[in-house]
Structures are given as C-alpha cells and as structure tokens.
Design a protein that fits this description.
The chain has 629 residues and is of the alpha/beta class. The protein has a 7-stranded parallel sheet, sandwiched between helices. Strand 7 (268-271) and strand 8 form a beta hairpin. Helix 3 packs across helix 5 (100-112), helix 11 (246-261) crosses helix 13 (301-313) and helix 13 (301-313) packs across helix 14. The longest helix has 39 residues, at 590-628. The protein is globular, with a radius of gyration of 27 Å. The two termini are 29 Å apart.
Length: 629
C-alpha cells in the first residue's frame, strides 16, 4: 500500500492545523482558493508527491476554516486525526454518531490535491446524495469540484461526475460503471478486428475508446465492514435479458407442481439453503420429465426441481424478498434494504416468481462480473471507515491489505447494555419485548426495536396494535418516507420498529425531554450471526455523550438456531437448553451470554472461510483467463 504522507504524523496534526486555520479567519474565499492552488502546484513539483508536514497542516487548516465559515462547524480533533489516518490507507474505526460524513471530507480533500480523482463510495444512493449536497459548499469554497453519481443518470452526466476532483456515489455504481466500460471496450475491440489495416490505408483515424470511468486512483469506503465483509460474497454482476423461451416457462411451472407434491426428508433434504434430492425424489423427477413434452430447456430438468424446492423451503416472503407491483425484489439480509437491481441467477429468481403466482420474468445473462476484492485492487489507494471494525481485522488484512485503527469517541460513551433475557418460545419473548417498549416509552423516552426481517417487524407492529399502541415501522417498504420516520424516532414516547439499520446513515436526533429522561432505548429481538451487526444496532443509542441503553432478547426458535442448529453442535445444545426454560418471564444467564459469543465467533469463522474460498476461486479464474488470452 502506497503512503501519501510523510510519517510519522502524530496526534499533533489537529493542533497545528487548528493553529494555522486561525490565521485564515480574515481571509476571503478567493484567498483560500489561492492557497489550495499553491498547494496543488507544490505537490505536483515534488518527485514523490507526498505531503510533508507543512503541506498537511496547511491543507487541514484550510478545510477546518471552510467547515467553520460554510457549515458553522468546528471539526473535532478526533475527526481530523481519523481523516488523516485514512490517507495512509487504513480502516478507521469511529463509533456511530461521531460524524463520519465530516471525517470522510478530510481524505477526500487531501487526495483531491493530487489531481487524479477521488471516489467516495457510500452504501446506497440516498446517502451519496445526502453527503454530496451537505459537503459540496465546503469543497466549492476551496475551489474543489465535486460530482454525484446517480444510477439512472445519462452517460454524459456520469462523465461529468467523474471529471470532478471528488466523486460521490454508491459503491456498486462505481463497480458497474467499470464493468460497462469493459463491455464497451470488448465490443469496440471486436469491431476493429481486421479493420485496422483498412483504416490506415484509407486515412481514417483509429477508433478511440473513452471510458466513462477514466481512472481509479483513490477510493474511500463508507460503512467499510458492510461493503467489504457483508457484501463480499455478492459479486458485482452486470446482466442483460435473455431471449424468451416458452419451454422454460412450462418447465418452471411443472417443477413447481412437482415440488408441492414432494415430501421433505423422503424425497429431498434441506441443509440450511442447500437442497438435496433423495432417491425417491430423483425417480419422481424422471417420471414427470418422461410424461411431459417440455421442449428445449435452458438448463437440466433436475435444476428446475432444485430451484422450485429452494424457493419453497429456503426462501421466505418478507424475509428474503418482497413482492411489490407484481415484482419480486431481493431484501438485503444485513440492512433490510430492497435491491431492485439484483436478481438470483440460474433460474432461481423465476422459480420464486412462479410460487408467488407471477409470470416468470426473462432470465438475465451475465455479461460481466467482478468481486469487490478484485475491483478495489484496481485503485492505487483504498481506505474506509466504520463503527464496527474490531474483531474483523483478519478480513481487512487478508482480503484488502488494510489495517484497522480505532479512535476514541469525542465524549465518553454513557451507553448501558442491560442483561439479555432468554425464553423458551418466541411468543413469550415477544410479549416481554412489547411490554418493555411500552414501559420505557411511558417514561418520556424513545424506543428503537431492531428485528431481523420485514416479516418480524410487521408481526411486532401487529402486537402493538393489539395493545392499541401506535408505532412507526421502518423496513424499506413502509408507506411513509424513511427520513420522516427517523426524524420522529427521537421524540418522547415514540416506538420505532425497524429491520437492521446498518448502512442507513441513521442519526436519531433526541428531543431534550428524551435526553433528560435517559435517552433512546434499543431493543434487539434476536441475535445476529455476527456480533458486529449487533454492535451496529447498539450503536444507535448513547451517541455524542447522550445517555442511552440497549437490551437483547432471544428464544429457542430464533433464526440463529433454525439456520444453524442442524449442523453446529453448539447451536443445537443452546437451542435445547433454551427450550427447557420453564418460566414465561424468561431468565438472565451469564453462561448463555458466553455461549452466544462463542456461537457468533464460530459463524464468523465460517464466513471468513467462505470469503477465502471465493477469493481463491476468483484468482483461479483470473489465472485461467490469462492463460487462454
């Protein structure tokens, strides 16, 4: 990893930059911009183009002054120190509520002075637009141009965004733009085969390919753990629609009918999301194939059966997908967001559409794909920030070559994590979740209930309605605007039910009476497979020195057990132990607390090994392609 700063820096950078910024109080905006021009010139004349200490203090001082005069914000020392650490190619662990949007501006501005373009990647388009609009005046005061990538923008608009010094955009859009350029480059190359000589003798200039995304110098990744770890198993895939095949539709419907008549553990087995046909199931498939004239199929008949079984037994509506406007769309399991641009491959998406009674859509043909690891290797420098990097240092180091540097909070954290409560059955747990939320809300506090799925969030909303208690629900398909719901979440007596908030950029502003009464109370209705995801939810409370509290509830039929008890001994043992709890009021137990931590560590190791295999496969495919080329 290349360093773009002289080292060591030390914590004094914030102090010295702040001293310099005071000398700029009477300077005009034009004088600030002149200083930026001088900085650019001095860097361009240096052989290695590395910031020395004077240049660093000057750049940070200019940014401090621009924030002060444009947004009336005085950057904290920890924000400056974390921002400078990012320019060294690190993952900065900065707790939620510490102003990561402002921290990102530090490396973005410093990198921009090299004149090679900076890509700031957010987790979604809403956050990219929000951060772009907030910081654009700050950059503009310093004479730095900034653009924003939009998924549905024209090619010309995207070229304009990339031509700026700093470009904000969703992380996936940077990857898709690269893939589109590769497809166009391949197409142009194929057109030119055999025509180069003819062009030369006829005096025509050779074709010039101008990519939309011209270069990849610096990448700053917001919510780095969500993007680089949670999303690492989902490669970026650019697809095009295939031609219609009536035989494919007949096969999908026939496979669905057969799946409905099959018996679990007699005709097939389910191992988490993997389906295995048993001997009786194989025989039924052969009989139906022989009985029906389906025509020329897109794939083997057996795959249609497996897809239909997986659609019925491995996927659940309002958990893994939602149906809106007669369309099946995928739900992100980590953030609860709806992904219109994604589809399951190899006919699985169409199998889900059939079981929902919809006409199967045309399948997508993969035109280009790249893993996030491989795409980020195309940049000269990558860095990122998140509130939950600790515990995943091996992931960042192994797959991205990035070290983790934690930063303390600006003010002491006053969060209280209350003892978790364990129950034998989900309905006992749910009753206590509802009652605790109502009791806390009555004390002029606000409550945030985190669930693992849209279906569960809706279920809790129904339970509160039965108690004649109004709540807000936030899960990506609610009727009201997300920003409006978040704005109300910090009001006294307000109860908000949500799916996982990771990557939403959510900052719940507390009313003064809520702050005085004890702050926001977070209730987690289940443990996640990763302790890091749980910490993200807890991080929504007790921010910036506010008081706040959090509690976890769990039961024997939670998702962490239904997904893993059949193949992990510890998960089975824990589930059996919870089933023996006699009291409907549940229990607290240090022993079960420790077992949950051990189980999550096991699951995180499994995830790490899965990512390692995917990277190894990606490298193998790349080596094969080089040999073929």
């Amino acid at each position: 990893m290349i360093s773009w700063l002289e080292k060591p820096i030390g914590k004094s950078v914030a102090t010295s930059a702040r001293i310099y910024s005071r000398s700029l109080l009477r300077a005009s905006d034009n004088q600030l911009r002149r200083q930026v021009v001088l900085l650019r010139d001095s860097l361009s004349r240096q052989k290695r183009r590395i910031f020395n200490r004077v240049q660093l203090d000057t750049a940070c001082g200019l940014l401090i002054e621009s924030f002060r005069r444009v947004l009336n914000i005085d950057l904290y020392d920890v924000q400056l120190e974390a921002g400078v650490a990012l320019t060294l190619g690190r993952i900065a662990e900065v707790q939620t509520g510490e102003g990561k949007t402002f921290i990102t501006a530090v490396p973005a501005f410093l990198f921009s002075l090299h004149g090679r373009g900076v890509h700031v990647a957010t987790t979604n388009e809403y956050l990219c637009q929000r951060d772009y609009e907030l910081l654009r005046p700050v950059y503009r005061t310093l004479g730095v141009t900034v653009g924003c990538l939009k998924t549905d923008a024209s090619e010309q608009a995207k070229r304009g965004a990339y031509a700026c010094d700093i470009t904000y955009g969703p992380g996936y859009e940077f990857g898709f733009n690269y893939l589109r350029d590769q497809i166009r480059l391949r197409s142009e190359y194929e057109k030119r085969l055999g025509s180069d000589y003819l062009d030369r003798i006829q005096g025509r200039p050779p074709l010039q390919f101008a990519p939309v995304q011209p270069k990849r110098a610096f990448a700053i990744i917001d919510e780095a753990d969500s993007v680089l770890i949670d999303e690492a198993n989902t490669p970026l895939v650019l697809s095009g629609a295939s031609a219609a095949n009536p035989a494919n539709v007949r096969a999908l419907r026939a496979a669905n009918s057969l799946a409905l008549n099959m018996v679990k553990d007699v005709d097939f087995q389910v191992d988490r999301r993997r389906i295995k046909l048993l001997e009786l199931g194989e025989q039924q498939a052969k009989v139906q194939l022989a009985a029906e004239d389906m025509g020329v199929l897109t794939r083997p008949w057996r795959v249609y059966i497996l897809n239909a079984l997986q659609a019925h037994y491995s996927f659940a509506r309002d958990v893994d997908y939602v149906v809106q406007n007669a369309t099946v769309t995928i739900v992100d399991q980590y953030t609860g967001r709806i992904h219109d641009e994604r589809k399951w491959q190899n006919g699985l998406h169409q199998a889900v559409e059939v079981i929902e009674g919809l006409a199967p859509s045309l399948e997508n043909i993969v035109e280009a794909r790249i893993t996030r690891q491989r795409f980020l290797q195309l940049y000269d420098m990558v860095c990122g920030l998140t509130g939950t990097a600790s515990g995943n240092e091996a992931d960042f180091r192994t797959f991205y070559g990035l070290s983790v540097q934690p930063f303390a909070t600006h003010r002491p954290c006053l969060r209280r994590v209350l003892p978790a409560r364990y129950f034998s059955r989900r309905e006992f747990k749910a009753a206590h979740v509802v009652q605790e939320a109502i009791d806390v809300a009555l004390a002029s506090r606000s409550v945030l209930i985190g669930t693992r799925s849209i279906a569960e969030a809706n279920h809790y909303a129904t339970l509160f309605a039965a108690k004649q208690r109004s709540v807000n629900v936030l899960h990506g398909i609610q009727a009201r605007d997300e920003a409006e719901i978040v704005a109300e979440a910090g009001q006294p007596g307000r109860i908000t039910i949500t799916t996982n908030l990771a990557g939403r950029g959510t900052d719940i502003q507390l009313a003064d009476v809520v702050r005085r009464s004890g702050g926001l109370h977070v209730i987690a209705t289940e443990y996640n497979d990763s302790a890091r995801i749980d910490r993200q939810l807890a991080g929504r409370t007790a921010r910036q020195g506010d008081a706040g509290s959090a509690r976890w509830f769990a039961s024997a039929d939670d998702t962490i057990f239904t997904d893993h008890a059949d193949r992990l001994v510890l998960a089975k043992r824990m589930r059996d132990s919870l089933r023996q709890i006699a009291s409907e009021d549940g229990i607290t137990s240090n022993r079960i607390d420790q077992q949950f931590r051990l189980l999550q560590q096991q699951l995180e190791r499994i995830g790490f090994e899965r990512r390692s295999r995917m990277v190894a496969d990606d490298r193998w495919m790349e080596s094969i392609q080089k040999v073929v080329a």
